[in-house]
Amino acid sequence: SMAEKAGYKHFMLKEIYEQPQAILNTLRGRVLPEEGEVIFEESGITQDLIKKTKMVNLVACGTSWHAGLVAKYWIEKWVRIPVQVDLASEFRYRDLLVDDSWLTIPISQSGETADTLAGLRIAKDHGSTVISICNVVGSTITRESDGTIYTHAGPEIGVASTKAFTSQLAALYLLGLFMAKARGTLDQKAIKEKIDVMLEVPGLIEEELKAWHNRAKDLSCEFSQYPNFLYLGRGLHFPVALEGALKLKEISYIHAEGYAAGEMKHGPIALIDKNMPVVCLAPQDHVYEKLLSNIEEVRSRRGIVISLGEKGDEKLKKLSKELIEVPKVDDRDVNPFLYTIPLQLLAYEIAVQRGCDVDQPRNLAKSVTVE
Ligand code: G6P
């Protein structure tokens, strides 16, 4: 009913709008901004565990796997430990190198995904410690882990994951800072600054939601009938591109692919013509110029450039058919939070425009408990 949806037309839209609160719930009680410290009351996550870890092993499916891909960039940069990110369905059937120096982190909203659970069990059999990131309290994955960081995002009803994803990101961000402190790879001041910018994120999202939603509505009128979409990003924005494409295909049934922008020349560029919208994630980070070159390549083949970039970026605006503006932050490591949400809204509005059953897309299940 409308009442359960708090006046929103779909659970998915309600959950998109709940993200500032969901992220705050993940952060609550876990940061001491003055001290520049992250604390986990949860059992199992100790400084000693982090000190002895030689490999971080992230295992997940679907949207949760995208959260893992983002975390690889954060943890390798801040903690200087190698991170491998696996699809659970691949991990479970591979000849593994896992041993007791590994820290395995299954990431799962439901805590019931069959492949992720199987991956957890295999990692444990190899002697790895297992700390899960999970939203559902008491779920199977949490019961079988040595410890769990709960995301506390609240129940997610829409099949396509939204607030569960950004709260997983928040949990992984905190874990990365905890690890950096334990290993001494970031000093207190740096950690404090990273906590401060993270604490600004919910407010920034709150301020932008309406504008992003209006942009998504406008764009959905223009773009709902295209059969294909390409999403491009580099670095932290590559997994965000994957997630944006996944959202679109899940709920609108438009074929969409996310790609590392630098890989475009090895395949997808062959598909670009005047009928191909290309969503380009182009913040002014260290690979901005590279992304602009990719945009030029799209333009010269008459692809339709829809960019996400920083407010006031006139250069990007000129190169793009459409620009969705995202606030510029002091530390772009929090960009995955900010760039994901406009893409969720774009997918949502396009799906609505196409008359799709947004909360229960065909052939998909909220949690996949069988293989
Ligand atoms: C299903 C859902 C996705 C989800 C994936 C992993 O495919 O439709 O939204 O990302 O499972 O689920 P989990 O509960 O393990 O995060």
List keywords for this structure.
repeat; carbohydrate derivative binding; Glutamine--fructose-6-phosphate aminotransferase [isomerizing]; cytoplasm; globular; 12 strands; 5-stranded parallel β-sheet; binds 6-O-phosphono-alpha-D-glucopyranose; 13 helices; aminotransferase; 371 residues
Structural features, described:
The chain is of the alpha/beta class and 371 residues long. It is built from 13 helices and twelve strands. The strands form three sheets. The protein has a five-stranded parallel β-sheet, sandwiched between helices. A five-stranded parallel β-sheet has the order 9-8-10-11-12. A two-stranded antiparallel ribbon has the order 1-2. β8 (228-233), α10 and β9 form a beta-alpha-beta unit. α2 packs antiparallel against α9. 53% of the residues are buried. The structure holds 6-O-phosphono-alpha-D-glucopyranose.
Brief overview:
Helices cover 46% and strands 16% of the residues. By secondary structure, it is an alpha/beta fold. It has a 5-stranded parallel β-sheet, sandwiched between helices. The chain has a 5-stranded parallel β-sheet with strand order 9-8-10-11-12. A two-stranded antiparallel sheet has the order 1-2.
Terminal residue distance: 32 Å
Structural class designation:
alpha/beta
Using the CA coordinates, give the radius of gyration.
20 Å
Instruction: State the order of secondary-structure elements, H for helix, E for strand.
Output: HHEEHEHEHEHEHEHHEHEEHEHEH
What form results from the Cα inertia axes? globular
In percent terms, what proportion of residues is strand? 15-25%
Helix content: 40-55%
Can you list the strand order of the major beta sheet?
A: 4-3-5-6-7
**Each distinct ligand:** 6-O-phosphono-alpha-D-glucopyranose
